[in-house]
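USER:
I wish I could look at a protein chain and see how it folds. I am handing you a single protein, as its sequence and its fold in token form. As I understand it, each token names a local backbone shape. I hope you can help me see how the letters and the tokens relate. The protein I mean follows directly.
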Amino acid sequence: MTLIHIFATNVKQFRMGKKLSQEQLAELAGLHRTYISAVERERRNISIENIERIATALNIDPYLLLLPTDNN
């Protein structure tokens, strides 16, 4: 299991848990919807700055997006 897979899965799970669309998350994070889609599909390497932006938009600590879970 790769870190990018863990991150992508966690972003999607946290987003869906908060009942946000990709478009809504992108708007809250100041990113484009296609960028969020690519992140969730493991098509983008993401910067630390954007990890922080997504975590802030989800109202969680950034490290939570990098922790393996049972769903990864």
Summary: DSSP finds four helices and no strands in the chain. The mean pLDDT is 96. The two ends are 8 Å apart (CA to CA). The chain has one domain: 3-64.
